[in-house]
Design goal:
The strands form two sheets. Strands 2, 4, 6, 8, 10 and 11 form a six-stranded mixed beta sheet that branches. By secondary structure, this protein is α+β, with helices and mostly antiparallel strands. The protein has one helix at residues 2-45; strands spanning 52-53, 65-74, 80-84, 88-92, 97-105, 111-120, 128-132, 139-141, 146-155, 170-181, 184-185.
Length: 198
């Protein structure tokens, strides 16, 4: 009887080990899928200050005005200068706007960077619609080379239907350039300062 019991215990232990291995593999798969799924969720909903992406201008223009401020940042290890042509603009909601940013490699070596962005206040990000943007596209600049990059956008007139946002008359579009490799931003480490040829 104890031999059957030992056999049952071995089967149960093997089953438990297989279940634990399956759970661990599933968790690993979810960890790898979490970033792209979260990015997709943010782009679809405007969550976390992520603007929506549009393909064309809206047909409706409101009398209500909105001021958009432009913020430009660069990770210290990239060695680039990055600035908008205007610090802010005021326009009617629904009007399509184009603003250029100038990017210059101030280092003495070629380097590659990629920009990430967000919109604040975050609850209004779902109404900030980008038609064209340089973000999430790698750019390589030679020493001293400059480029101009446009962002084309509008504020969706649907914002007027959201009573919680009635008092919101200004937004900030904030970009940060990071060194990049294989189309992904590279996190800085203490030893990376000044090393921009990633």
């Amino acid at each position: 009887m104890s031999a059957i019991s030992s056999k049952d215990q071995a089967v149960r232990a093997k089953r438990t080990a297989l279940i634990c291995a399956g759970v661990a593999m599933g968790m690993t798969g979810l960890a790898f899928a979490a970033v792209p799924l979260y990015d997709l969720f943010c782009k679809a909903t405007g969550f976390g200050g992520t603007p929506l992406v549009g393909t064309a201008a809206t047909g409706t223009v409101l009398d209500r005005k909105m001021t958009v401020s432009f913020d430009a940042n660069v990770a210290p290890s990239l060695g680039w200068r990055f600035e908008p042509e205007a610090r802010d603009i005021t326009f009617r909601i629904g009007q399509t706007q184009t603003v250029f940013y100038k990017i210059t490699n101030t280092s003495n070596r070629a380097s590659t960077g990629i920009a990430t962005f967000n919109v604040t206040p975050t609850q209004a990000a779902a109404y900030f619609v980008k038609i064209q943007c340089f973000c999430f596209t790698e750019h390589t600049l030679q020493p001293g080379e400059s480029m101009e990059a446009p962002v084309v956008f509008y504020v969706d007139p649907e914002i007027a239907q959201n009573r919680d946002l009635n008092g919101v008359n200004s937004l900030t579009l904030s970009y940060t350039y990071f060194p990049s490799k294989n189309g992904q931003p590279v996190a800085e480490s203490k030893g990376d300062a000044g090393n921009s040829n990633l």
